[in-house]
Amino acid sequence: MRVLHIVATPRERMSNTLRIADAFLESLQTACPNVQVDVIDLYQDDLPAVAGVNIDVKYTLLVGEPIDKSHLESWDQIERLIHHFLIADVYLISVPMWNFTIPYALKYYIDCLIQPGYVFRYDEEGRPVPLVLGKRMVCVTSRGGDYSAAGPLHSYDFQEPYLRAIFGFIGITDMHFINAQPMDLSAARQQAAVAAAISQARQLVAGTDWNVPSLAVSAELPRQLKPQSIKMAT
């Protein structure tokens, strides 16, 4: 089972979010010794440009046209990022709440991934069809305030609804959230929130069947990753 850990916090070892994610991974690796964990650090790894030529390709794909040969080299970077995402069976996102939603680095990564023909397509009537099926996602978040359903800030939570919406759009609906909250005001509240989240993470591992069926996507990337229903230029 392949797990892709998407790190969307810049605080590295000072991150409370990563402490919880590490506890989740430790429990998962104990329960499933065959787990292979890959990491993409959105504040350390270079991401392809979502501008210029690559924006042109995106709109070319949206209207069902072939990619121009002169754009293939630049677009290859986007394809490689998508392929790296697709070969995973389980996704773990470590993401603090910033200004009620997600940090810019995670939004940028999502903008790279969500490409027509690769993770979704349109049917003959123009309806979007998800293509990333049979996957599971765990989101570990940390929040300063209490954004729980009964909390005073619940209506300001644009983080969990957005992540559920955007990944649900491409077909990932088996999602679990571990929200460490509230983390502000005092060290005692922070410690209690982290401890509760770590406990929740371990319970999630213990109470879940992790035999996720792999879609057997090749770990190598020859030029086989093509947008569905679209022919490349020759």
- The number of helices is 6
Low-confidence stretches: 218-224, 229-234
How many structural domains?
A: 1
Dominant shape: globular
Radius of gyration: 19 Å
CATH topology: Rossmann fold
Helix content percent band: 25-40%
Mean pLDDT: 88
Tell me, what is the CATH class?
A: Alpha Beta
Description:
The protein has one domain (2-206): Rossmann fold (3-Layer(aba) Sandwich), CATH 3.40.50.360. Residues 218-224 and 229-234 have low confidence and may be disordered. It has helices at 16-31, 53-62, 72-86, 104-113, 159-169, 187-206; strands at 2-7, 36-41, 90-96, 120-122, 128-130, 136-142, 174-180. The radius of gyration is 19 Å and the shape is globular. It is built from 6 helices and 7 strands. Helix content is 35%, strand content 17%. Helix 1 links the parallel strand 1 (2-7) and strand 2. Helix 1 runs parallel beside helix 6. The strands form 2 sheets. A 5-stranded parallel β-sheet has the order 2-1-3-6-7, covered by helices on one side. It is α/β, with parallel strands linked by helices.
Write the layout of secondary structure elements.
Elements: E1 2-7, H1 16-31, E2 36-41, H2 53-62, H3 72-86, E3 90-96, H4 104-113, E4 120-122, E5 128-130, E6 136-142, H5 159-169, E7 174-180, H6 187-206
Parallel strand pairs: 1-2, 1-3, 3-6, 6-7
Antiparallel strand pairs: 4-5
